[in-house]
Write a structure and sequence with these properties.
The structure is a homodimer.
Chain A (H helix, E strand, L loop, with lengths): L6 H35 L10 E3 L28 E7 L16 E10 L12 E12 L9 H4 L8 H4 L5 H6 L1 H4 L3 H23 L3 E2 L5 E2 L11 E4 L2 E5 L4 H9 L4 E9 L12 E10 L5 H21 L1 H10 L12 E4 H10 L12 H15 L3 E5 L22 E6 L2 E9 L3 H10 L8 H5 L8 E7 H9 L20
Parallel strand pairs in A: 1-4, 5-9, 11-12
Antiparallel strand pairs in A: 2-3, 3-4, 6-8, 7-8, 9-10, 10-15, 12-13, 13-14, 14-15
């Protein structure tokens, strides 16, 4: 088990919250006692007997009632005066009996839909209300919640001093993820995330790509063994794949021509930042091309345009819900996307007072600055940066045929943060060996990688996308843990 | 690294093949020398200079030719007399120059399409042929192949004694997967496998399911710790998830209502059979229901019907290609699918002379027998077996409300082998604790699982499907390694 050194902090917060909840619970108890008293004085005259109570545990009994339920969101005036059933989480004030029902419990309600000409305040349904005739608890919650859904749903506006005190901190949210995921924002985030995967797949499938599944358990840590998790494998050991790249490339060498895969990717990096996870969802693709890797790079650029259009058009409701809690500038993009060359970026940075050497990589703050410069000049939150210095790319990257300092590689950015890294890969085993030696990599250890290209392989390029980062940056969120349903980092492997 | 104790055997086979290949190569060398001689005598008169040769390594040079390629499968008479470019693997006999090109190399060919009224034998294109005017090697293969694509593609018919000698064994295939995947059968298998995932997702998305991603790195081995891989996780350790079940259930408790996920699943089982893998692709779903788990069970049954229909209608070409190498009876199914109750199955087995106790599980051979009985009686290769004995199911399975020996659980079968296991899960934390204690499970170790249901949770059911098994059994193949692109078993973690 992994020790969470931040736990002490969060425990203190949790204790505070627990005390608050205790007080609230005592209040509720008092209230409930009153209700009981009232109820007992009415006992002889209880005309609602058999119309409320705790349902027995639903175990799929054949004698179970046959009811057809209506979703709250489906309510409207056309249902006025009709009797319907809904299954919904109740609020304390819903009906008298419900003062005994703890928040977040699941209840079934029979009710008549009533028009409310004056409008209902503070509810998702404003023009009708329910006149409850039956209420049954299906599954009750413990009375003390570690966090209130209302608090977890509160808008976070920068500089809003008051709201600071009632914010639910990240660890409390993640420790109680089942509750935190019930907020309208969480519901919208993960529906939109599913949308990104769907758009990615649908777009590539239309272009003739084949979906593949690559192994996560691999025999050797290919790039020197840094940042790789070790797995006990029967009497030996193995590793967790840091990327599906070798396998995507093998699929290309095996004549599949265009492939994609969506799956878990593992990085044993001890980075505790807003954008690093030790396990994330990779959207990967690889494609054979005819003569120039730009055939692939531009296809990927176009893929992003399709995804952004799809999100804008099909997920506007989700985007608006999330924006109410976490306000952000709408995401902007160009069609076709902007392609900048590395030397051009260096000039833009120099003009802004930051000098980068010809063979230097961009640091994270410099990437962010470049994102702001690009946004100011071209009004786009997405762009492609092409032709990285050869020195800062992995050994399997194809060097530029004309400029020995440059390479056939690219990164793609959203709101100034990298979300894809890709390149033409070396498909010739001799040249690959030569480049690996240049990087002082033990050839023995990567023999099976090199061997994959021995039997003929078309030139190819590809890239890998971090799903959680794409969703975080598209929505302008501040932490990748908001877009990973059950995030993993060096300090967290629970729940 | 994992030792492959079967390697000695396959090494012998490989050596034999290598010797054969050596002979062939010497022959080719001799031939090539002749060609060179011929070429030198023709040197002054070589009218083809600049029309053949080795292309320089394609590194995305801006001066690269601009050509538009035609796929071999797109060739037809309408192209007759037109000059086109194709990129294709060549056969030894294609043109004179190609006798120097090793098999499986990638070449670009300029050619004129010519009608062949008499038909071309032994090729995929029978009514046109190419009159080659230019040929360029893009990427050359080493001359000695560890297996011949022709051998790897040879039909396997039961009882066919002759074909036994030229079969390529499974380990040779997997050791050289890049070549083995080039056979028409492999190409078709993995295209069909991609189809299963697509049909699964499209069908569930239409029904309102949300796709989620669940962590593979988990903090505790929930069911007692058997068959779980351990991962070194920074200064501690963690485990690889045997199923996404806990996380699917948490998503249900978190109000997502209907979820599915496709991802890697790990089993540290030391089983070396035709149907066990240590890593496979799980197609998982979980769904809240109103009153009866049959709402979910029948939805899953219907999902399979949709998948089978989709494969039959959209992948008939792939099915036919695979059937040529591995003949099998076409897969049969009923719409709606057959649902058998466990007691009915016991009666069918008893009538066939096999007695199974009321609380006994079915062994693999008995499952297969039952499959044959069902097929004979109902003519279906797919069916649902409902209401398993409680004693043979995991602790979280909901017991039957009327019969304490029975449970609300089901398996689904294809050609007599289990491909899905599912059930209503206990959604009440107290009852779940009671059942775990009954199974002598350490409550402390599963506390976070039980806690997921503390804050109210709708009744729900679901199931997990093994992708590779579904494809294997749909096609009537004999080994799950044929349907896993890079299979992992206790003896294999490569390539």
């Amino acid at each position: 088990m992994v020790e969470d050194i931040e736990k002490t902090e969060s425990k203190k917060a949790a204790k505070k919250e627990a005390k608050k909840a205790e007080k609230a619970a005592k209040k509720a108890e008092h209230k409930a006692a009153n209700v009981k008293e009232n109820a007992s004085t009415l006992d002889e005259a209880d005309i609602s007997v058999g119309k409320y109570g705790n349902l027995p545990l639903i175990r799929s009994d054949p004698s179970a009632p046959k009811r057809s339920f209506t979703y709250i969101k489906e309510l409207n005036k056309s249902l006025a005066n009709k009797v319907i059933w809904v299954r919904e989480t109740v609020s304390k004030s819903m009906v008298k009996f419900s003062s005994n029902i703890s928040k977040e419990s699941i209840v079934d309600i029979e009710a008549q839909v009533a028009e409310v000409p004056s409008g209902v305040a503070g509810c998702t349904q404003t023009d009708v209300e329910l006149v409850v005739s039956q209420i049954w608890v299906v599954s009750s919650s413990v009375p003390q919640l570690p966090l209130q859904i209302d608090d977890a749903s509160r808008p976070e506006k920068p500089g809003d001093e008051d709201s600071l005190n009632i914010r639910v901190n990240q660890d409390t949210r993640l420790d109680n993820r089942v509750l935190d995921l019930r907020t309208p924002t969480s519901q919208a985030i993960f529906r939109l995330e599913a949308g990104v995967c769907k758009l990615f797949r649908d777009c590539l499938t239309k272009k003739g790509f084949v979906e593949i599944h690559t192994p996560k358990i691999i025999p050797a840590a290919s790039e020197g063994g840094a940042n790789v998790f070790t797995v006990s494998y029967f009497k030996g050991s193995a590793y967790l794949a840091q990327s599906p790249q070798l396998y995507k490339q093998m699929a290309i060498a095996a004549d599949f021509e265009k492939v994609f895969t969506i799956g878990a990717v593992f990085r044993a990096e001890d980075s505790n930042t807003h954008r690093h996870l030790t396990e994330f969802t990779g959207l990967d693709l690889e494609m054979a091309f005819q003569y120039h890797y730009h055939e692939v790079m531009l296809l990927i650029g176009n893929l992003f345009t399709e995804i952004f259009k799809g999100l804008r058009d099909e997920y506007s409701n989700e985007i608006s819900i999330i924006g109410q809690q976490y306000p952000a500038e709408p995401f902007t993009f160009l069609d076709p996307p902007l392609v900048l060359k590395y030397p051009e970026a260096r000039v833009m940075l120099k003009d802004a007072g930051v000098e980068i050497g010809e063979e230097d990589d961009l640091s994270t703050p410099v990437e962010k600055l470049l994102g702001r410069l690009v946004k100011a000049k071209y009004d786009t939150d997405f762009y492609i940066l092409d032709k990285y210095p050869l020195a800062v790319r992995p050994f399997y990257t194809m060097p530029d045929p004309q400029n020995p300092q440059s390479s056939n590689s690219y990164d793609m950015f959203m709101r100034g943060e990298e979300i894809l890294s890709g390149a033409q890969r070396i498909h010739d085993p001799k040249f690959l060996t030569e480049r690996a030696k240049h990087h002082a990599i033990d050839i023995e250890k990567i023999a099976s990688y090199i061997d994959a290209f021995k039997y003929g392989c078309p030139p190819h390029a590809g890239g890998g996308i971090g799903l959680e980062r794409v969703v975080m940056l598209y929505l302008g969120l501040d932490n990748v843990r908001k877009t990973s349903m059950f995030p993993r980092d060096p300090k967290r492997v629970t729940p």
